[in-house]
Design a protein that fits this description.
Length: about 425
Amino acid sequence: MDVAEWRRHRAYDQPVSPSNQRPLRVAFFGELGSGNTGNDGSFEVVLDWVRGGVPDAQIFSICLGPEHLRARFGIPTEPMFAKWGGDTRSSISRGLRHISRKARNPIWIFRLLRDTDWVIVPGAGVLESTWHRAWMLPYALYGLTLCARGRGTRVALINVGADRARNPFTRWLVAQVARRADYLTLRDHHSVTALRSLDVRVSPEQVRPDLAFALTPPPERAARHPCVGVGLINYFDWRGTAGKRASNRATYERIMISFIGWLLEDGYSVRLLTGDIWDDPCLERVLGIVRSRHPDLGPDRLIGEPARDLHELMKQMRDVEVVVGARYHNVITALRLGKPILALSYAPKTKQAMEMFGLGPFGHRLDAIDLPTLKEQFCQLYSQRAAISQELRTKLTEVEARLQVQQEEFVADFLLSPSRPARTQSLPVRIVQNAYH
């Protein structure tokens, strides 16, 4: 069911109830359904919050992968960007159509937000510096907040990541988006620092754990012994020239192939892990090279299957004793399961997550790793795995409690606030707002 069809069936087309109340209407916005397990996992958590707190809410999504999201979660969806209108052989015509599409997109979003009470951006690094192209997500979010203001729709950015972009126009767009949010929480202190550098008034009190920590883990079972999970990322460093980016990726994959080979020769079983459909080519390359170098390996010694959501990733990760991972939500998933992890960081958010769980010494920059250090750190981590796992589980109890409190406060103080019918009224003073220095 698309949004147009949904509108024909929604409650406000029916007689208004005596209390003059109508069901809450909530839109989700983001790069959802695009193959990134972390984005979809964050969406799933907040979707459950809304469904659990407001059972009669009418929900739809404006996203990058509408077909996938509709099939998986059963909600009406619409594409994030206005329709392309066909392809053309002329590069000039394609460029003009692309510009026209970007110009028309706010109109598209404005139409979709008609009679919507809330638009929610659930988690993900939507305000991060990796969005070096201003006309991608920063522009889309800017248009969203502008349209929401025109419609009287409130905007919630829930536990998102932020960073200071190099592009000045991107910085301006990100600052405007953050300032317009009626509800803004951030997933780490680095995000607070980044937004403050853009003159956005935020407070450390607005920091909340990553939403993926609220996902229900699969039933526990004993891990295979000895078994190591190695998370792979199709590494793309957008800084520098195309040649430099290709060189960085080749170096990373070469080190990981050597490390996996060392693990196998030392008697470990290895399960390769992914976190995004973008990582599939890297998985195929690494798996093919390692198998060619170790042709006598049994099928249980080296396993490589892509995960299409965080639930599938958690099930795969149950089998391992420790994890060596790069993609951010590989790290978060390992921590969610209490698995000791050696993190190869490509962004500050990974370092922040590791430090929150007391694993700062086991985090390293992905573009500066070397094989001897990787082996040494792995041996140290593996030897301490039982004690580290116990410490992680203790910390998890606190993290889960914080997210439970946030869920209750968000539903009670925002979605169900008495001021909801008059959407231009001020929000309650006691709740989290972006009104701090």
